[in-house]
């Protein structure tokens, strides 16, 4: 199994990266290899998956097949345990200077077992001016055996000074049937469920896998898709917004609770205070710092869950517009086709576009750190039919 097998629906990008990995076998300075790459694509396109596959191909030890997926270099790189491959994903809304500096220090070291030292930075669009300028110096004058792989939704999301010094590889949203095939092959999911999940997740591999395996996730999605029909007045909007934010907070808390407890236990073990009845002051400070980091991570996860819910809403409104315009394309949400037709009959295409714009605005507000409840309440109010009064 090749490391490229999970980079679904990205033939052109895989060919570029595979050729570069082959050229990289010549070592630093090899023609066709670049020291800094920018992988862009919409959510679900598999940016980080492609970056990790490229990193594994650069670490591959097989003499005949680059990115074989079987050797120790490929397996440890994909698993995140290779000594020369570092992957960074921030738990904050921005990548800070204190996050970048350790990466730069790592980049200065020569690779220990592979030809290259590879550093993957997910969400490079979260670099701010300070952290971006710090990173820029290393990208401008990189160590000869270091490769930077930056991931972002779009080229324009990355600081101009950084993107001008990287080689750009665009990714697209993979076809739903390719995602479904991956779920069947890799996760042994029933083909019918895989096809439903791939389409409902709009080809986002990770979300499709979750929808296919988690009935709770499918139920939450159905509740989100019911939102436009539930909102008829101000009272409906406030209640629905509160429920949506509560669902996101519950999901973020449930998914992080076990990890938070494990991190706390590991920290106390490392500090020799695992069984202490009372924590010494120095230990309390570090525990408090860990708890603060965990709260920030939970807030970001909540924001990500809400953003995904808004993407589901956009998919629903897209289907409504398809029906209203009579476009000859498949629905993203065929499982709620009756609701889609009812919404299409109950409103105009102009009204649907207005609602879609309101969803897009809510997503931007969440990205700008607006309080989730305020952003979602404003959206819910905008989903009311035109002419709706203040009655709940």
Question: Which residues form runs of ≥5 with pLDDT under 50?
Answer: none
Helix content: 55-70%
In order across it, which strands form the biggest sheet? Answer: 2-3-4-1-5
Task: Give the amount of beta strand, in percent.
Answer: 5-15%
What is the mean predicted local confidence, pLDDT? 88
> What structural class do helix, strand and pairing data support?
alpha/beta
Please, how many helices? 16
Write down the secondary-structure element order: HEHHEHEHEHEHHHHHHHHHH
Beginning-to-end CA distance, first to last residue: 56 Å
Task: Give an overview in words.
The chain has a five-stranded parallel sheet, sandwiched between helices. It is globular, with a radius of gyration of 23 Å. 58% of the residues lie in helices and 6% in strands. It is built from 16 helices and five strands. With 392 residues, the chain is of the alpha/beta class.
Layout of strands and helices, then pairs:
Elements: H1 11-23, E1 36-40, H2 47-59, H3 72-79, E2 85-88, H4 97-107, E3 117-121, H5 129-140, E4 146-152, H6 160-163, E5 167-170, H7 176-187, H8 191-200, H9 205-213, H10 215-225, H11 227-230, H12 234-270, H13 281-325, H14 337-346, H15 349-367, H16 372-382
Parallel strand pairs: 1-4, 1-5, 2-3, 3-4
Helix pairs in contact: 1-2, 2-3, 4-5, 7-8, 8-9, 9-10, 12-13, 12-16, 13-14, 13-15, 15-16
């Amino acid at each position: 199994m090749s490391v490229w097998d999970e980079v679904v629906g990205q033939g052109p990008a895989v060919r570029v990266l595979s050729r570069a990995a082959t050229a990289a076998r010549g070592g630093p300075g090899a023609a066709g290899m670049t020291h800094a790459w920018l992988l862009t694509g919409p959510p679900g396109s598999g940016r980080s998956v492609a970056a990790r596959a490229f990193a594994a191909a650069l670490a591959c030890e097989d003499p005949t097949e680059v990115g074989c997926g079987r050797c120790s270099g490929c397996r440890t790189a994909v698993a995140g345990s290779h000594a020369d491959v570092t992957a960074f994903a921030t738990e904050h809304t921005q990548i800070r200077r204190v996050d970048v500096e350790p990466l730069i220090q790592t980049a200065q070291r020569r690779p220990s077992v592979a030809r290259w030292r590879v550093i993957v930075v997910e969400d490079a669009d979260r670099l701010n001016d300070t952290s971006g300028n710090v990173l820029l110096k290393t990208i401008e004058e990189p160590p000869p055996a270091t490769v930077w792989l930056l991931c972002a939704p779009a080229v324009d999301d990355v600081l101009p000074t950084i993107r001008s010094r990287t080689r750009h590889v665009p990714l697209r949203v993979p076809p739903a049937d390719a995602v479904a095939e991956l779920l069947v092959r890799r996760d042994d999911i029933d083909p019918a469920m895989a096809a439903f999940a791939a389409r409902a997740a709009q080809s986002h591999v990770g979300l499709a896998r979750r929808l296919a395996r988690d009935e709770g996730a499918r139920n939450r999605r159905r509740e989100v898709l019911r939102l436009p029909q539930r909102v008829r007045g101000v009272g409906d909007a406030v209640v629905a917004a509160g429920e949506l934010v509560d669902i996101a907070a519950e999901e973020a808390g449930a998914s992080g609770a076990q990890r938070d407890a494990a991190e706390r236990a590991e920290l106390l073990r490392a500090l020799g205070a695992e069984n202490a009845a009372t924590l010494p002051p120095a230990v309390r400070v570090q525990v408090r710092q860990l708890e603060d980091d965990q709260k920030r991570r939970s807030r970001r996860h909540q924001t990500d869950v809400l953003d995904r819910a808004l993407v589901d809403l956009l998919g629903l409104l897209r289907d409504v517009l398809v029906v209203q315009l009579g476009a000859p394309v498949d629905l993203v949400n065929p499982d709620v086709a009756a609701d889609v037709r009812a919404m299409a009959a109950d409103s105009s295409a102009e009204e649907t576009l207005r609602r879609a714009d309101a969803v897009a605005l809510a997503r931007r507000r969440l990205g700008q750190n607006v309080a989730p409840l305020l952003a979602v309440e404003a959206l819910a109010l905008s989903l009311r039919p035109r002419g709706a009064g203040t009655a709940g």
